[in-house]
Amino acid sequence: MSTLYADLEQSIRANGNRAQEGNASAQGHTEASTQGGGDSGDRPTPAEYCRMVPLLDAQTSCREVLELIKEQPDLPCVVIGGKEGEPYGLVMRDTFYRKLTGRFGADLYFARPVERFADMQPLIADIGADPGLLIQQALDRPESQFYDCVILTDHGQLAGVLTVLDLMIMSGLLQTGAEQRRRQTVAENFRHVTGMEESLQQVAEAANATLIECRRMKEWSLNGRSKLDEVSHSYSNVVERMNQNQQQVARLIQDVDTISALTRTISELADKSNLLAMNASIEAAHAGEHGRGFQVVAAEVRSLAGQTRQLAADISGLLGSISRLAKETGALTTAGVGEITASAELLGEGSRMFGELEKAVEHVAGTGETVNRLAGDTAMRAAVIRQELEKGSSFA
Length: 396
Description:
By secondary structure, the protein is mostly helical. The chain has 7 helices and 6 strands; from the N terminus they run αβαββααβαββαα.
């Protein structure tokens, strides 16, 4: 055996030993993952299942490869690559065995280079590739390549391979993780929908309570408006009667002035009568014995005139008091009418505000009914969603 062949054999054996170590590590990880069902929180990565295999030169003979495979029965394949370590071909163990263990296989192929049995268009992916996309690419391969290994590279150099078993385990773990995440999502949605349903029920109850309060407020508003209307009507009657009283007071003042004028006339007539009586008494005194009777009559007339003047003076005083009181009454009545009119306007404003409050309460009541109805409908839909989630997530 030449020195070049010896160096190649040493390299192949070293790579084969690393492949056995990688296979054992991958097998242990596979068994642990299969028994434990995988970690729902971590996605499997190609690096975790990467198996180390030899990287051979394209001119390596089939005899050398066969000896290598016999020495390492767990080796799934060998990879054909360049001097820089970049892979470009794949030789599967089973395919290689079928061709070399035939009746004339040894005579035909032992001395030939292994690249004659290599798949020169294998599936090559980066070791950090997304496992889901990598599995999909492997499934999309032709049926003749379905069981071939997938070559993994790291910065363009061979990192290892993934067998179909590794891909299936990764797919199972992805499905398990996806199912667990789906269950977690469904559980979270179930909790959210349940909380939403409870909140909507509370909203419906609050809206119903608001509706009841709005109805009570509407009733109070109607009663308040009715009472204000009654008071406003009473004020209107009072204002009308006070206006009538004011008119009567004005007429009373006019009558008092008229009576005062008549009283002054009576007083003037009494003064004239007194003066005439004095003149008559003087003339009766001049008549002597014949005028004595007339003199008595004149004295009585003077006395009556004095009494009449006194009565006229008393009447004038009383009329003055009556006139003053009537004027004060008229002034108070006028002021009272102004105050009552202002109060009536305030009552009208209050009645209008009660009307606006009634409209606002009706609007709030309508909104409360809408909220109550919508909250009830939404709560029913949330209950339906919750039931569907229970059916789909084994919570029921």
